[in-house]
DNA sequence: GTCCAGGTCGTCG
DNA sequence: CGACGACATGGA
């Protein structure tokens, strides 16, 4: 077991990380206010908060995705991102009431999560509630993942690893569909995407190139059945660390109408309007961090206005 | 019973 | 393009 200390210049709420894209991945994550545990790149990782700006990290390997654990975790928790970078002064001054409401969400992080996990979990997130999405991911991990009991000091944590691409690629659709809310189309799309990833048709390295323009990245992801604009943008934001990607779902659409008085956001969301709202968002937010900002607003909207409890 | 959930896709006007 | 239904289930 390796142990590292990481110092952070910005605060990070580890429980808040659960509100990130990993809101779905309930049984392959365990987190509380001062700790976070998961299996990342098939290695067990445990993070404990020592103070607001210091973490200790335990890992059973010295490298994750080929880079040192401290470097990886710093990137994973995106503790390099500062809230004043995410929201420019103009935004803060233009929406003072909203800014005050939003201040409770500043310690929430957008994680730089695993590409494959992100792709599959967001393919489960189509027009159904958070509860059902999490149920699907839970079943996927239990049926196709690996059970792992992790011991960190005195703390025992039971988790499932996320299924490997191959295990989903070879899955029988009738069995897999039990994990996808009985939706066979979704199950077939997931198996197909897993196959494409295994075979390199979905070229992870190519997609990870930060020079790749967002529209092109979106176009390539949308080549896969079951991935539309919204899910492609989620994969870019959470799975490729593209904080400029701005996924527009039913909640984002609602707050664009309510908080930013967008008339377009009141109409049904067609592909053409999606692109139009995407353009609008880039005039409201710092385009470089539009998605990061949008994610904070997403949770703020759900909790403060819609009174939805994610946990 | 009705409506809405972190949508996507095929079909039709 | 835009509207509409299918896909599926469960909580409010």
State the main characteristics.
9 strands; DNA-binding; two-stranded antiparallel sheet; globular; Endonuclease III, domain 1; alpha+beta; five-stranded antiparallel beta sheet; 311 residues
Give a quick summary of the entry:
The chain has helices at 69-76, 83-86, 89-94, 96-102, 115-123, 130-144, 165-169, 173-176, 184-198, 204-207, 214-221, 229-239, 250-260, 271-284, 290-305; strands at residues 2-7, 29-31, 35-40, 43-51, 54-59, 63-64, 67-68, 147-152, 155-160. It has 311 residues and is an alpha+beta fold. The protein has one domain (2-239): Orthogonal Bundle (Endonuclease III, domain 1), CATH 1.10.340.
Describe this structure in words.
The structure is a single chain. The strands form 3 sheets. Strands 1-5-4-3-2 form a 5-stranded antiparallel β-sheet, with helices on one face. α5 runs antiparallel to α12 and α11 (214-221) packs across α12. A hairpin with a 3-residue loop joins β2 and β3 (35-40). 44% of the residues lie in helices and 15% in strands. It has one domain: Endonuclease III, domain 1 (Orthogonal Bundle). It has 311 residues and is of the alpha+beta class. It is globular and about 50 Å long. The protein binds a DNA duplex (13 and 12 nucleotides) through α6, α9, α12, α13 and α14.
